[in-house]
Amino acid sequence: MVKEKISSGQFFALLNLFVFGTILVVGSGLDAKKDAWIAIFIGIFGGILLFMIYYYLYKLYPDLSLIGYSQKLLGKYIGGFIGLLYIPFLIYAAARDLRDVGGLIGATVLSQTPSLFVSGLMIFSIAYVLYKGMEVLARTAEIFWGLVIILSMLGSLFFFLSGLINIKQVLPVLEFGWEPVIQAVYTQTIMFPFGEMVAFAFLLPYINNRKKVLKTGISGILVSGILITYSTFINLTVLGVDVVTRSQFPLLSAIQGIEIMELIEHLDVIAVLTLVIGVFFKTAVFYYAAIVAMADLFKVEKKEKLIFPTAIVILYTSIIIADNFPAHLDEGKFALITIFPLFAVGFPMLYCLIAFIKEKASKHKHGRTNKNTSV
Amino acid sequence: MKFDWNPFHKKKQETRSGNSQKELPISDDLSQNIKRLSDEFGDNSEIIIRELNTGMKKDIRVVSIYMDGLVDQTLVNEFILESLKLNHSDFDKNTPKKDVFNELRMNALTLSNVKVINDWDQLVLTILSGSTLVMIDGWNEVLSGETQGWEERAIQEPTSQTVVRGPKDSFTESLKVNVTLIRKRIKNVNLRVETFQIGTVSRTNISIMYMKGIAKDDLIQEVKRRLEKIDTDSIIESGNLEEFIQDHTSTPFPQLVNSERPDAAVGNLLDGRVVILVDGTPFVLIAPATFFQFFQSPEDYYQRADIATLLRLLRFFVFFLSLFAPSIYIALTTYHQEMLPFPLLINLAAQREGVPFPAFVEALIMEVTFEILREAGVRMPRAVGQAVSIVGAIVIGEAAVQAGIISPAMVIVVGITAISSFAVPSFSIAIPARILRFLLMVSAATAGFYGMILLVIMMAAHMNSLRSFGVPYLEPLSPFNLAAQADTFVRLPPKVKQKFTFKRDNTVNTANPLNKEGDSNG
Amino acid sequence: MAKRLLVVFLMLAVVCALLTGCWDRKEMDDFSIVAALGIDKVEDEGRYEVTIELINPPEVVGGKEAASGRSSTTTIYSAKGDTLVSAIRRISQQTPRETFFPYTQVIIIGEELARSGIEDIFDLLERNQEFRSTPRVLIAKDNTAKNTLSILSPLEKIPAEKLLKTSKVSGESLGETISVKVLEFGRKFTSEGIEPLASGVSIIGQSEDGQSQSNIEQTTPNSLIKSEGVALFKKGKLVRWVDREEARGILYVINKIDRAIVTLDCNQKTKALSISVTDTRTTFRAFKTERTPAIDIHVKQEAEVEEVLCEMDVADRHSILDIEKQLEEKTKQEIEKAIEIAKEENSDVFGFGEAINRERPKAWRDIKKNYEEIFPELEVNIQVDAYVIKTGMRKETYRRE
């Protein structure tokens, strides 16, 4: 079915970068104040549950993308319609991430450059990589995963060396009890970043080693989740909760403070680049998922043909979704409790249910007639 | 598809020799054959046709034919002409010519390699390759004796890939010598050599060598298939051949390693790669090639592992510098000044004072100047070399700075870049760095580090899309292969390596060129 | 197609680089580097007077680029405005080049402004991406920031560097000043249960003389900058200067002392023994008493004997014990005094409130509202452990008979 294949290691890298993607830039779960890191940590388990849903569907239809089994389960038209809805959703998600980059770059390194130009460069670079195919994307992700990990290890080493970390700033733990934490978990941290993993429902058929998918997926979520928990924790210990909640880009503000031997300082540009790498791959995943969805739905043979037009649509969407960056972030909060749950949890759950019932039914039938093979 | 520039190209069908396609018989009339030969060779003064009579009564007409200059005159004189002149038993005019021919073939010619030719095309080719032919009147087969012997460059020290410690011999222009240089290092029957002739006009001999049992059969078949598919008039250098058999054309990255060192070729053979030798050039091609191979020097394996590892890391750093130094300078000084340490910033700012060009233009001028100097240095006659280097040093180093056109820091940056590009062990991998450096400079001038990181991701993706004979170009980094890390960025000592990896270097072995699906269980 | 895309990308890049783009590109000679930023309060023409110190790089570096050594290494500009940004914009009317703030080393606040409240100025420093979180905050004691910045200094070519280094060196060797980053200062502003601190700088000598080049050409300059005192803030307003030992007491508690010199009594002779404190570690915990929370401070000190002006056998274990005891006593006194001062001003610079919040969150919620009344009454227990670990190169002093 799918010719290009990615290894489970590459899937792991891609999943990691995807999760780091924008969350390192803008942060998540800050409604839980000092306990944001706990909220993210709990979010990991929500993420794993979500992944189980996608995995269940993947196991039933290992060769099909979400569009494929949606049509199988709900019929060509209803399934197709829901599939159709996924396309704007994925494009919207890609556009949001692109906007994040525009905002980040605009606020830090290129303050006077129009964000159309910044986003344009980004989306065309992504388009170039996607032309080379899914496999190239995944293998490139593998390399940059290594780079990001090395840079973040260096970064946290610098944090320790410069003596900025002050654990006292996150104490007391659970100052206001579990309530705000749980609140933040289900309004923010499950959906962002983990709910966005629904994009992988379109990419799972590319993985060559099917047996390892579950293991790799869960370990990927765990590792990336723990890393973002760690990063949030560092942000809080360095900046204090007040500054973190006030900052648009908390990690950057934290890194700005690093000062070692009057030589290693002003590292924020390097941090920005690291963040750009994450967002690059995250956007690429959404973008490619949208391409896969379109190709599946409209039976397009050559996916390459879709890449350029989609790039323009994403670019345009990223410009029009919000008037300014704060509005964009605000809209993001809204999307996290409306659009994302519907697409990331709602529909997949529905499919799971139908698939489960169908399977039961077919087993039943199977038991009686002893003729049909399974679906 | 290919740009057809060669006027000979159209005559391809006529001149093509195709072994079985158009077999021309040789006449049994000697005079006719001689006439035909002189017709084909025209007024060529090099062809020597020596008629003589042999036999008891000196009544059997025999002709020996060779190209002057391609043969070893002593060999021809002593072992062919001399033996023909000797009285051969009791032959005379009436003996069946077949017996005469066989007698000459079996007993008379005192050369080790004597062949029988019965095809006209083959005959012409044999003459052109420097063999001496013996024709007998009245028989339609011809004897050829290997008498090649022309002036050749002796085996010398390598000039482009030198080592401090290690063998000092290098390949020469002679295919035979080159094969021998490899063969004498591997005394194993599994070392196989297969020879092709490529080029409808030049008929260049091309040999491939591989270790049977170590090199993958798929790889060998693929190499052969590609060689056979070549459709050209001539192959003059291995570089010509490289362009025909490489996987991707539109990329600055070399997809085959070239080497003039027999020890490097041997090492690669033992790793399961295929070595392609082209007659007339001291550079052999090694396939498949991965990006990281270009950073390995045979000397890595002759020195202790610790220093070899450090040097290898240094080479990656040097490559990085030669690729990025000017663009990083541009990005830092025109976009991200806040990243510079305070004293350095003040220093650079003081230097910039009064420089008329933007940093990007400044860098461009200097880089182009440097490329001009480099090109001049390579092409010009040796005698004027000194003059160019003096002018270069004065123009770049002194006058530009003195005049305030270029800031001194820029000269340093360009200098570092230049030195770095020479310190990369393989000349062919320095070339993409040379080209991409300019792209990076443009991206740095456009959007600072942001533009650069995007271009770097694109470059990585581009390299990831490359394959050399089916092997992913960035193997073993991506797809990641843990076992191969023992000898990629670092070189572990053999004893440690054995513990680290059970198999031998499986970079090539696991590669599956026919199936586009690389093994990737990283 | 992929190639075409690459071509499009590159063309875009080239076109931008050469013709239209590069919105953010600025060459090094397009801007001048700001080394220090001074903020003063004014009455007329707006709220603030902003003073910036611009660096003249060729003069700093020297060499042939320097214009015959006539111009000075830095230049001071100042302008007034209702907001900091409007004042800074007004400065650009005077300067030929754009100002460049990321290298601002110090931010000096005039005493008058500090006393009337500085909570508003930190918004710009946080919001604007050109400002970093690392500049040190200093308060111009009894003077304006403008005057302080105007003093040229010997040894250091850039006055801002001089300010920075003076405050750092005196902090390190005397333990009576503190270098505070903007980030930290701002954080303490906004946090509950802690108030910020900053070091002061003052001018010795007449400040008019200090502004000319001749000031640094003399071996005894007329004007000098001195790092002195620690300013206590309360709700964004400077409330009190503390000096010397009192300042040291505060720094002991907040664990900001690297080195300090303490003079102790020696046998009968007073103040005849110099002890240098080499390492101080302070921890404090909040615990709950019946009524309100209380604070336990624990200080651990390591010290060396530096100078002995009396007959004392420092090789003797008993005298070492005596010194340790004296040192403990002295430190305790200093801390007690410091806490007393803080309580007088009702400014919790130590962060006791934060500690209570951290360790007794429930108690904190009860007292948060009226912490101002509780702080002066707060029970504080101090325990000091001092250890003399070195006595120098001699066992006993030569005056011993």
UniProtKB/TrEMBL annotation, chain A:
Keywords on record: Germination, Membrane, Transmembrane, Transmembrane helix, Transport
NCBIfam families registered for this protein in UniProt: 2A0309
GO biological process, one term: spore germination
GO cellular component, one term: membrane
Protein name: Spore germination protein KB
Subcellular location: Membrane
Family per record: Belongs to the amino acid-polyamine-organocation (APC) superfamily. Spore germination protein (SGP) (TC 2.A.3.9) family.
Membrane-crossing segments per the record: 12-30, 36-57, 77-95, 115-131, 143-165, 185-207, 219-241, 269-294, 306-322, 334-357
Record membrane topology: Multi-pass membrane protein
From TrEMBL, chain B:
UniProt KW keywords: Membrane, Transmembrane, Transmembrane helix
InterPro entries recorded: Spore_Ger, UPF0353/GerABKA_families
Region ranges (Disordered): 1-25
Membrane topology of the entry: Multi-pass membrane protein
Keyword hit for rRNA-binding: no
Gene Ontology terms describing biological process: spore germination
UniProt main location, coarse: membrane
Signal peptide coordinates: none
Stretches that traverse the bilayer: 313-335, 385-405, 411-431, 438-461
Superkingdom per UniProt: Bacteria
Xref: Pfam families: GerA
Family the UniProt entry places it in: Belongs to the GerABKA family.
Protein name as it appears in the record: Spore germination protein KA
Species of the source: Halobacillus andaensis
UniProtKB/TrEMBL annotation, chain C:
GO CC list: membrane
Signal peptide positions on this chain: none
GO biological process, one term: spore germination
Keyword Magnesium in record: no
Membrane-topology annotation of the record: Lipid-anchor
Location(s) in or outside the cell: Membrane
Alphabetized InterPro entries for the sequence: GerAC_N (IPR057336), Spore_GerAC-like (IPR008844), Spore_GerAC-like_C (IPR046953), Spore_GerAC_C_sf (IPR038501)
Keywords annotated in UniProt: Germination, Lipoprotein, Membrane, Palmitate, Signal
Pfam families: Spore_GerAC, Spore_GerAC_N
Domain Spore germination GerAC-like C-terminal: 228-392
Residue span(s) of domain Spore germination protein N-terminal: 24-201
Keyword flag Lipoprotein: yes
Family as reported in the entry's similarity comment: Belongs to the GerABKC lipoprotein family.
Name used for this protein in its record: Spore germination protein KC
